[in-house]
From TrEMBL:
Top-level lineage group: Eukaryota
Domain Myb-like: 21-73, 74-124
Organism per entry: Prunus yedoensis var. nudiflora
Biased composition (Low complexity): 7-22, 130-144
Any one GO BP annotation for this protein: regulation of secondary cell wall biogenesis
Pfam family, one: Myb_DNA-binding
Residues covered by region (Disordered): 1-28, 130-152
Subcellular location, principal: nucleus
GO cellular component terms listed in the entry, alphabetical order: nucleus
Protein name per its UniProtKB record: Transcription factor MYB46
SUPFAM superfamilies listed in its UniProt record: Homeodomain-like (SSF46689)
Keywords for this protein: Activator, DNA-binding, Nucleus, Repeat, Transcription, Transcription regulation
4Fe-4S recorded as keyword: no
Length: 336
DNA sequence: AATACGGGCAACCGCCCGGTG
DNA sequence: CCACCGGGCGGTTGCCCGTAT
């Protein structure tokens, strides 16, 4: 994190200078900048980011605006800690995708690649490291005795919030290592599911409670999204996915009590008040919907049962992800 | 109470890729 | 074919804050 430039006021005075690329602000975003970007995006939608920066009256480069919007201001962002299910999914997807954070994020509703990347580097990586060191036998703790097959060593290790213990965990993101392990059936393709009862987060027994990908702003009911024209639309949701509808998993319990959306975030993201602003958005976002969808045709393991479909040299990410997206995690359909 | 330290995370950097003229 | 530009992405930095000493 970086301090906002001390000359924010000075930068403002240069608003009318169109040739001010050398005076672009860096560092933390001020609440005024957030307001400008937020209102511009809601009113005009996403276009050329350098235009966004210019037209919104921001002394920022387009990239900075894009990043701020994607990582912080997007109304559909989920704030707060990762749920155990999300952790599991991240680990699972990372075992398949490696450090392709954007692709992992695409399958985690409301989470950004940056958020997941930070979470991985700060939390999960550390846990895996501790795990690997604690798993080492006291008698064989010297480095020379490190198992050749660290996949096997890690398999059955850290599974947050569950007792599964069949998912391999990787410190190494090499696809070749991952795919070879995949081929060896070393992980449970649906680690977050109870195969017998098909228990999904928020539900059980073949059905689960899902929250649709919808967002309400300032209490206005309806879905929100960017339409074909790039304009941020409220109302008139798009339905795609399982049985024709978009659903986002209810990955965490969201309070429905606080519906008083504050329109002015208190700018201090170390301060919980600021986070509350976004949590309130999410409260409203995720409220009012508690739909049940039927989970059918889960293609568990079919892909991996046919080993001839995969060879080391023909590893196909998209094919691999088929099993992760619609089949294995039907609630993630809307993302693709 | 003061200081040191480490964790968490927002934001920047630099590279890559695709589109366009 | 090439140069330029904007957008996307992964890696890294650096600051704030909580905790330990």
């Amino acid at each position: 994190m970086r301090k906002p430039e001390p000359s924010a006021a000075a930068a403002k005075s240069n608003n009318n200078n169109s040739n001010n690329t050398s005076k672009l602000r860096k560092g933390l975003w001020s609440p005024e900048e957030d307001d400008k970007l937020m209102s511009y995006m809601i009113n005009n939608g996403q276009g050329c980011w350098s235009d966004v920066a210019r037209n919104a009256g921001l002394q920022r480069c387009g990239k900075s605006c894009r990043l701020r919007w994607i990582n912080y201001l997007r109304p559909d962002l989920k704030r707060g800690a990762f749920s155990p299910q999300e952790e599991e999914l991240i680990i699972h997807l990372h075992s398949l995708l490696g450090n392709r954070w954007s692709q992992i994020a695409a399958r985690l509703p409301g989470r950004t690649d940056n958020e997941i990347k930070n979470f991985w580097n700060s939390t999960i990586k550390k846990r895996l490291k501790n795990l690997s060191s604690s798993n080492a036998s006291p008698n064989t703790s010297d480095s020379s005795s490190e198992p050749k097959d660290h996949h096997a060593m890690l398999a059955g290790g850290f599974i947050p919030g569950q007792e599964h213990g069949m998912m391999p965990l990787y410190m190494d993101s090499s696809p070749s290592l991952m795919q070879s392990t995949v081929l060896n059936h070393m992980f449970d393709p649906l680690p977050m599911l109870d195969h017998a009862g098909l228990t999904l987060p928020g539900g059980a027994g073949g059905y689960y409670n899902a929250t649709p990908c919808t967002t309400q702003i300032n209490g206005v009911g309806g879905d929100c999204c960017f339409g074909d024209n790039g304009v941020f639309e409220v109302g008139g949701g798009v339905d795609i996915g399982v049985e024709g509808e978009i659903f986002v998993p209810a990955l965490e319990c969201v309070s429905t009590e606080n519906q008083n959306l504050k329109t002015e975030p208190i700018y201090d993201h170390r301060n919980t008040t600021h986070n509350n602003y976004y949590n309130n958005i999410n409260s409203i976002t995720n409220t009012n919907y508690n739909n049940n969808i039927k989970v059918e045709n889960i293609g568990v393991g079919n892909y991996y049962d046919d080993q001839e479909e995969l060879t080391m040299g023909e590893w196909d990410l998209e094919d691999l992800m088929k099993d992760v997206s619609s089949a294995s995690f039907p609630f993630l359909d809307y993302q693709s």
